[in-house]
Design a protein that fits this description.
This protein is α/β, with parallel strands linked by helices and 338 residues long. The protein has two domains: 119 residues, NAD(P)-binding Rossmann-like Domain (Rossmann fold); 190 residues, Rossmann fold (3-Layer(aba) Sandwich). It is built from eleven helices and eleven strands. α10 links the parallel β9 and β10. The radius of gyration is 23 Å and the shape is elongated.
């Protein structure tokens, strides 16, 4: 075993548990002597088995699957010292509990930049060109009866714009937001970067949040879910948008008021929306207003939180998770959230 530094951990034998290994199995870890580890890699874990499986863990490798406060408690996981999250978002964990217990939480920030950016652009084209609506019409034999061209007209009877006519508003300017802005420029779009909502000072290169909503024809949300971003987009914000605008959410569920979005689409306030994340996940007709039967005829594209999926993402997650765990054990933690 190669040396990683001078670890200060009292535990020499670690139990590493992965409840949802289908997303990313335990990477090949190198622990310095005298440290060893025992992997418990589960492809998936039903809720009635989660407590039993995570109880012995000193290190947990988690996906973005919801994790309750009880799971983080000393009663449930008495030996837990470190959580490596295989995603950038950690809003599914109660970080206050982790801080109080001295549990280090790391994430895999930037692992999914390419995949999420490309998915967002794909959602844009799907919504702008109304793929879902025109495909359904063709399968129903509508083309045999006459041209499907009218299906692509907007509320004013005008054709869909091309990329060179679009104004892209990016809300959230981390690595993914920057990549989406870059891709938008490459497609010929004018790009506006939104300042934080309610900010008193507008940073160079950014525009006031409300002004971006008013000017953009395509709005992409790619920002973390916090107390400040819950329902960032609701009835008032949707009312600011242009009738021809497309709203894309590839960040987190709960940032968009889903009921307000459905009402805006039904009223023709905006031209369409594409959503990869939901207030409650997994989402379906029984628990999501976006997936209800009454939304079938709307220009609303839904994908089941799969924007991150790509071989590149998995490769990056494995590498970052390995670095996070080995760095923590060596006393040089990286990508620390708390």
């Amino acid at each position: 075993m190669g040396s990683l530094g001078s670890p200060q951990h009292k535990t020499t034998h670690h139990i590493i548990v992965v409840p949802e290994g289908r997303y990313c199995p335990i990477p090949d870890l190198v622990f310095p002597e005298p440290y060893t580890y025992e992997p418990h890699n589960h492809f998936s874990t039903p809720q009635d088995k989660i407590v039993e499986r995570i109880r012995p863990a000193t290190i947990l490798i988690l996906s973005a699957v919801p994790f309750s406060d009880y799971h983080l408690s000393a009663e449930c996981t008495p030996n837990l010292q470190m959580i490596a999250v295989m995603a950038s978002g950690t809003d599914h964990l109660n970080l206050d509990i982790c801080r109080k217990r001295g549990i280090t939480v790391s994430n895999a920030r930037s692992a999914n930049v390419a995949a999420v950016s490309e998915h967002a652009v794909g959602l844009y084209f799907a919504a702008r060109r109304k793929f879902r609506i025109v495909e359904r019409a063709m399968r129903a034999g509508e083309w045999m009866k006459g041209s499907c061209h009218p299906l692509l007209l907007d509320s004013k009877g005008e054709n869909a714009p091309t990329c060179g006519e679009e104004v892209l508003g990016v809300v959230g300017y981390g690595r993914i937001g920057q990549r989406i802005a870059e891709m938008g420029r490459m497609l010929g779009m004018k790009v506006l970067v939104a300042e934080r909502k309610g900010a008193e000072t507008i940073r160079d290169g950014r525009m006031e949040f409300g002004d971006v909503l008013k000017q953009a024809t395509v709005i992409v949300l790619i920002l973390p879910k916090t107390e400040d971003t819950i329902y960032l987009i609701s009835t008032a914000e949707l009312g600011m948008m242009k009738p021809q605008s497309i709203l894309i959410n590839v960040s987190r569920g709960g940032i968009v008021d889903e009921e307000a979005l459905v009402q805006a689409l039904k009223a023709g306030q905006i031209a369409g929306a594409a959503v990869d994340v939901f207030s409650e996940e997994p989402a379906g007709p029984d628990n999501s207003v976006l997936a209800r039967e009454d939304t079938r005829n709307l220009n609303l594209i839904l994908t089941p939180h799969v924007a991150w999926v790509a071989e590149t993402t998995t490769t990056n997650v494995k590498l970052i998770t390995k670095q996070n765990i080995e760095g923590w054990l060596a006393g040089r933690p990286v990508n620390v959230v708390t």
